[in-house]
Design a protein that fits this description.
The complex is a heterodimer of chains A (about 450) and B (about 110). By secondary structure, chain A is mainly alpha-helical. Chain A is built from 15 helices and no strands. The chains are: A mainly alpha (about 450), B alpha/beta (about 110).
Chain lengths: ~450, ~110
């Protein structure tokens, strides 16, 4: 029998990371609301980069890294190694990401970018080390677990490449030697870290939450290979210095084709999981994860018609945002429930009378609540539709910003309002879950 | 549905009572008790000791230790039971077909 052991499981740590991540999303949304026109301006402006990194690091990566304090034990069926390392890695990640965001927001200050980037690199390096040590105790064979490990490797590569970009920006000598290649940083992050990470962990979690067992695993394996092909094509293009030659065009198309195919496989995998599911009605937070996948074909089409910024927005805010938000609520309810009810209360002898009986009825009044009873149900659809609507409007804004500036300005304001409401609703839900459980102790 | 193998050796409580009490232990994610989920494979009541073979929906289930503790707590609550041994087993693995018709209906199966 495998004993996961409560000694290696500290639910407070990942739960805190998830709540801080939700608060960071609200902070970023409010910053966007204060200046929504940033969506219609140059995408590499300091303010836009600050917002992008607040979303990707303080929300997505912090939630992801927090989840990795629990998920490997579930996926690899083993104990998490060095559980105390999480305190150092998650706090360093949060502070480093904040420094980085401030560095971008205050006009790309090199000192802050390098300092924040270094902290984030060290933090994610520690997360990766912990993951690899855990995997070594029981090497995972399934493609979902392998995709998760690969995704964290890509996450580390992404922040290292980001740090290189910051160094290149600070030192002209380096720029001359290395060039300035933000696309590598972007693609390793978007595809390698986020698509593969959501694909790997999502396959396991969606299977659990939807009771969808069995089925082929070739799609996830193929998706991982396609991600490698996409990144490799970009690397070859950069290293070989293909420039404007014909090879550059071929490599760009290989990379683009692999990206679109990998995204299509992820959608196919989720649809296949849902078709096999036995739990017909999915919970709202799981539905949010599923709905996020509707943005993948949107991003693919936008990319194929040359709307790169709009495609990136649909991918990041729509797909990644909704998927992470949905799983955040599910995982937080698991974590807080376990923290509150894992240790049984004092045992009182009682007659053999069941509370709910073997009838499938609901638990008795003295039983711990069900996970769904920890939530405020009205907040979940609100979060889904406002975050989804905000992502859609932000995508529309990016697509229209060069031609229909008046329409884009209006949709930028609407996007900022919707995203702020969605992020506030999500944060309210996370605080409610924590409060509900803490008062039940 | 899973057929629970029951063995009784001078039991202080009937195994049927044990099964009934286990019907009050719920999977907090699915909202269905572990008996209707078909997770209880075998119950042995030997004097005041109850041993149980059961499974979970998936190996590495994050609620692993919690459900195990709740089962132990519920059984120790039975008058006369002094000792409880819960063994989690993964063979045969749990499948949705292990569930009772009541559980299947409640999940829309």
């Amino acid at each position: 029998m495998i004993n996961l052991g409560r000694d290696s499981f500290r639910p407070h740590l990942p739960a805190t990371a998830l709540v801080v991540g939700a608060a960071a999303l609200l902070g970023a949304s409010i910053a966007l609301l204060l200046q929504p026109t940033v969506l219609t301006q140059y995408v590499a402006s300091p303010r836009m980069l600050a917002l992008t990194h607040a979303f990707t690091l303080l929300f997505v990566t912090l939630v992801y890294a927090g989840t990795l304090q629990q998920l490997p034990a579930v996926m690899f069926v083993t104990k998490l190694m060095w559980p105390r390392l999480g305190y150092a890695s998650l706090s360093t990640l949060a502070i480093g990401a904040l420094v980085l965001v401030i560095g971008f927001g205050t006009g790309m200050r090199p000192v802050l970018l390098v300092l924040g980037g270094t902290m984030v690199c060290l933090a994610l390096g520690a997360v990766l080390l912990q993951l690899l040590l855990t995997a070594r105790t029981r090497p995972p064979k399934d493609p979902a677990s392998r995709a998760l490990i690969t995704a964290v490797c890509y996450l580390v590569v992404t922040v290292v490449l980001g740090l290189v970009l910051a160094a290149v920006r600070a030192r002209p000598g380096l720029a001359a030697a290395l060039g300035y290649r933000p696309e590598l940083h972007q693609m390793t992050g978007l595809l390698g870290a986020f698509l593969l990470g959501i694909g790997g962990s999502g396959q396991k979690l969606l299977s659990m939450f939807a009771l969808s067992k069995g089925g082929p695993s070739w799609r996830l394996k193929a998706m991982a290979y396609l991600v490698h092909v996409c990144v490799a094509a970009l690397v070859v293009g950069v290293v070989a210095g293909a420039g404007a030659s014909g090879a550059a065009g071929v490599l760009a198309w290989v990379s683009l084709g692999a990206l679109v195919a990998a995204s299509a496989l992820q959608v196919w995998e989720v649809v296949a999981l849902l078709r096999r599911r036995l739990r017909k009605r999915l919970e709202d937070s799981v539905m949010r994860y599923v709905i996020g996948h509707a943005f993948l074909p949107v991003a693919g089409v936008l990319l194929l018609v040359g709307q790169r910024e709009a495609a990136t927005t649909a991918f990041l805010l729509g797909f990644v945002g909704l998927a992470v938000s949905g799983m955040l609520i599910k995982i937080l309810s698991f974590l807080t429930w376990t923290a509150a009810y894992a240790a049984p209360r004092s045992v009182q002898p009682r007659p053999a009378a069941p509370q709910g009986g073997a009838t499938g009825a609901s638990p008795g009044p003295s039983s711990p609540p069900l996970l769904r009873q920890l939530l405020r149900p009205e907040l979940e659809p609100l979060t889904t539709w406002t975050l989804g609507g905000g992502a859609g409007l932000a995508t529309l804004t990016m697509a229209l910003s060069s031609d229909l500036t008046a329409v884009a300005s209006v949709s930028a304001v609407a996007a900022a309002i919707a995203l702020t409401i969605g992020a506030a609703s999500q944060l309210a839900q996370t605080l409610h879950i924590v409060y509900r459980v803490s008062t039940a102790k | 549905m899973t057929e629970t193998v029951i063995t009784e050796l001078n039991p202080v409580v009937p195994a049927a009572d044990v099964l009934e009490v286990l019907g009050g232990v719920y999977d907090p994610e699915l909202g269905i008790d572990i008996v209707n989920l078909g997770m209880v494979y075998a119950i042995t009541v030997a004097g005041s000791a109850v041993s149980l073979e059961m499974t979970l929906t998936t190996p590495g289930c994050p609620l692993h230790s919690t459900i195990e503790a709740h089962v132990t707590q519920a059984l120790l609550g039975l008058r006369g039971v002094q000792e409880v041994d819960v063994q989690l087993v993964w063979d045969p693995p749990w499948t949705p077909l292990s569930m009772s018709d009541v559980a299947k209906r409640s999940l829309g199966f």
